[in-house]
Amino acid sequence: MPALYAGKRVGKPLLNGHTYNALFNGKPVWPLDKDTVVSIEITDDKGKPLPKSLAVSGTLKLGAKATYADGHVGDLLTTKNVTFTSRDTSTATVSGNTLTWRHGGTILVTATVNGFTSAAASIASAYAPESIKVTDDSGQPVDAVTLRVGETKQLNIAVLPAAASQEYTASIKDVSLASVRQQ
User: Fold this and answer.
1) Superkingdom, according to UniProt (predicted)?
2) DSSP state letters, 50-98
């Protein structure tokens, strides 16, 4: 809210380097330095740095620490006096201080304290495996494998989408018929 004097907007009154305040309806016209947020650090709910990534179907409890114009750092805020927002709700959503995975990609989350919104914190979000692709050595798709006794077949497995974890475990139901070697 701008301060007006004789109908003209005026800046903060300074005298010898100190800001002097005025009251309007019993409230200070300019926020005090002890109440003015100048930066916010987003952390987990224990005050530790955010993880680099969020697992498939994972959740994370958020916290925030605000730094004020007078130099002090406020208490860790988790739900009261702070609002967390996901910048892309298709990747992750926020309810209270709980960040919940929805899809793979980059999660951008902000925190707002006393009207000041932080820069977006970035967390990588894992992609869920959706399907697998099986090919032979020539790259041709393989739908079924029929082998004679003593024959071997090299198969290539890709988990899709390519950004998903490529970890898998190959197995066979009846080990008396064949064996599987995973490289």
Assistant:
1) Bacteria
2) PPSEE-TT-EEEEEEEEEETTS-B---BSSTT-EEEES-TTTEEEETTE
pTM score of the predicted model: 0.68
Does a cis peptide bond (omega within 30 degrees of 0) precede residue 28? no
The C-alpha atoms of residue 2 and residue 76 are separated, in whole angstroms, by 31
Closest CA to 79 of 99, 49, 59: 99
In this structure, are residues 121 and 42 in contact, taking their beta carbons and an 8 Å threshold? yes
Helix (H) or strand (E) holding 41: strand 37-44
The residue among 160, 166, 50 whose CA lies nearest residue 106 is 50
Give me the architecture of the 33-125 domain, per CATH.
Sandwich (2.60)
**Could you tell me which residues are beta bridge partners of residue 84?**
111
Per-residue pLDDT reduced to its tens digit, 100-130: 999 999 999 999 999 899 999 999 999 988 8
Taking only the tens place, the pLDDT of each residue in 34-53 is 888 999 999 999 999 999 99
- The verdict on whether omega for the bond into residue 51 sits within 30 degrees of 0, i.e. cis, is no
Residue spans per domain, the chain? 33-125, 129-183
* Rounded CA separation 99/92 (Å): 7
